[in-house]
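Standup notes, protein team

Yesterday: finished cleaning the Sphaerisporangium album set.
Today: Cytochrome P450 structure.
Blockers: none.

Input for Cytochrome P450:
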Amino acid sequence: MRLTDAGAKSVSLDEIDLYGTELYRSGDPHAAWRTLRETAPVWRQEAPDGTPFWSVTRYRDVVDILRDTRRFSSEHSTMLSVLQRDTAAGQAIHLMDPPRHGQVRGATISALSMRVMRRHEPKIRERVAKLVAGAIADGQADMAKLVTMLPMLVAGELMGIPQDQWTEAAHWTVASMAPEDPAFSIGDEAATLRAAHVFLFSMFIELIQDRRESPGTDDLISLLLGMEVDGRPATDEEVLVNCYAFIMGANPTIPQASSHLVLTMAENPDLWRRVREADRSTLPLTLEETLRWSSPVNHLLRRTTQEVELGGHVIPEGGLVAAWIGSANRDEEIFADPYTFDPVRTPNQHVAFGFGSHRCIGNSPAQTGVQLLLEELVEQVESFELTGEPRHLGSNFLNGITHLPVTLHPNGG
């Protein structure tokens, strides 16, 4: 989506459709979210199949919903595109409520910790540096395509995925989250989903079998095979759906935040100059602002476990509530001048990784990947030049870019 300055815009409520994907490909969700925060912070809409859902757009309401796992359950679905019960509900880490959620999280978090990331950082930095140098050498690069590889460069080994499968794994992961987008579609939405699922599940079934025969020690698949759920060993099905859940969680943040970072700096040369000339100690602040600014995941879906009164609305038991992350990260009550990218913004209480017990378990790899890319861009790139029109992802779940043609001008070039 376009990260516009919606500060002076308003939209008629009759015109707002947060479900349709075209809004995110070519429209301005920020204007719609701002209108809802001001006039209808809890807003009922029906999906095309008639299923109602309630949108929550203010920061404090979003945080309250994500932290309240007792009344707002994840054990149904976390995406508007899956309004009916997800087939992995109650088994995959993102589709579990406490205490079972904690069992899977506790068994696997060591593989994705910042301590592990620091140990692997030299190797990851070398890969990221090569990616940036290659883009410079090519003259013109499609950065949106290049950065789809970043999650695998950062976490492919940690997950236990062989390097020769990284490219296809990255492609089909995003395709499974945005099957209707032309960049990934191979016919219709159902055909694209089938192809994505066949590749990803076949890959993981083979890797699970390999790990059973030759167990590893600290890769994610080996840890999943060794975990217990409700006091018993995890089944192969539970391991499989969690392998899928982890790769789905690994892919959105790094490439989407990275693409928006490059686009923002290309459109604002003075801002990029400011970032380059600042003390390197401020780059972690720029990383956090990149995450707030891009908000790679637009929303998280929850299902009420009881009747809930929210903002003057009564939501029935079993009601579906979309907590809009992208809107919360532009809330004027929390963020001063929220439509400005401030590379040294502090404090910065963004919720790009969610909030509460379900805060993204892959936040350390994601932060590492974007941070290292930012550092290498600062070291190697003097300026960015857009050489074509960016194309934005048609998805109400991911805030992505599918085409970003740029020339990267080298430092001293």
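Follow-up from PR in the comments: The chain is about 45% helix and 15% strand.
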